[in-house]
Design goal:
This protein has 428 residues and is of the alpha+beta class. It is built from 14 helices and 19 strands. It starts with a strand and ends with a helix.
Length: 428
Amino acid sequence: MSDRHQAKWSNWSGFQTSNPQQILQPANIQELQNIVRDHDKIRVVGAGHSFTPLVCTDATLLSLDHIAGVVSTDTNRCQSSIYAGTRLYDLDQHLQQQSINQALMNQGDIDQQSLAGAVSTGTHGTGADLYCISGYVEAFELLMASGEILTCSRTEHSEIFAAGRVSLGSLGILTKITMQNRPRYKLKEHIELCPVEDMMQHIHQWKHQHRHIECFVFSYEKQLMLKTLDETEEAILPRKENFPSDDTLLTMCSELTKTFPSLNPYLQKLLGIFVKPTTYVDWSSKIFPTPRNTKFNEMEYQIPVDQGVACLDEVLHALRTHKVATFFPLEFRFVKGDDIWLSPFYQQDSISISVHQYHKQDPHLIFDVVEPILQKYRGRPHWGKMHTMTTAQLRASYPKWDDFMALRQQLDPEAKFLNPYLEKLFLG
């Protein structure tokens, strides 16, 4: 029987809250189907790592935490069918088994999300030749408003497959997802400081020299943290915890910046003292994620790849001009374009620019300065990160917007899977 309880819900950062009528955790697919048939309004929550009100509801909130694990594997194709509630950090213990020997093609630096949550919002890592996680979905099962389950792939219900890999949970509930994986592999992580000017001049060459490359850029500091990941056969050299830890330093500097904003430029100068070149080697699932204990709120836009450096330069200039008090660096990454209707990377190789604000500070102090610039460069927002784009702006940004909305209306005419936030976003 499913677990049922009434509680206040909040996302990871605490910025989004709601009071669902009930929170249900079905034990299996059949229970899930019964719940869908019996309720008028439903939203599904994963780890709560989205910063938008994607799952906020005063109706029924569903957690798929009990519907987790690997269902089956295809060793010839290197694919695995995985229950939608599986957390990314749990996935490797299943895939690493000798009889399976698989790993995800790419991951971001947070691994707390459920697989369905990461897929549904277009969550991504970095790599000029690598898709977001949704781009590696080969098939999925979709539980529709009627309680029926539909199998979708490139050859079966192909329109729903094209739309449903990034659908914000608005078409139905993903129950099982088949991922295109690859044999397990090790990555060498290297972090060093690099002049911002050098990065801006050479990054489009460097992006082809590494499997993964990303930059952490501070508003006042002339050096940035450059992180590269490359495949290797070298012996494992596990990541060591610094003392004080990166998280401890980040929390301390964020607290000081919040209380004494004028200290921010001087605190950022400490980067050269605390960041030393480091190299680690480990299995990909150990290297991709990094500890994130300092809570924040985040905005992120995907900029056309040829505009990304100019956009970053303008954002940095604006942060300095407005003396914005945030110690968090901007994050600068590459993502390959795909064919998913509402993917922020639809038919567009992109540079992802992420803006963070410490959770105890008002995020609008920085987001209101930066967002007009990200939009000026024709950016598309990450669906799980804060943004203010309107229905009209989104329609202009997504060539398949109207096709998606027509399909959503067809699959869920009673809007069972929409909450007030999505109704505003989708229906205008």
